[in-house]
Amino acid sequence: MAQVVTVGKTFExxxxxxxxxxxVDAQAILSKNKTAEVVDARHIFVQLLVEQGWYQARIAxxxxxxxxxxxxxxxxxxxxxxxxxxxxxxxxxxxxxxxSK
Length: 101
Known about the structure:
Blueprint: H1 11-22, H2 26-30, H3 36-51, H4 56-63, H5 67-75, H6 77-83, H7 88-99
């Protein structure tokens, strides 16, 4: 069996960082919850996973969603930041800073 190498923080560590900074429940991020705050946190979470070296297929498997959904989240991330009028960029920066420590 091939050894799995994770670059940077683990899935669970990144999830906890995003949940804490975004002030949402970690399990809500992994759920089908569609409130704006949770969806924002979910997008930030996926963005950080990719930045930490995770492949889209692996993210999809761990989150229980399909790879196309992960791809769309990444493709539309900048639009979400731009048009949501929320604090996504600030939360993303704070989460990045925390994850990189």
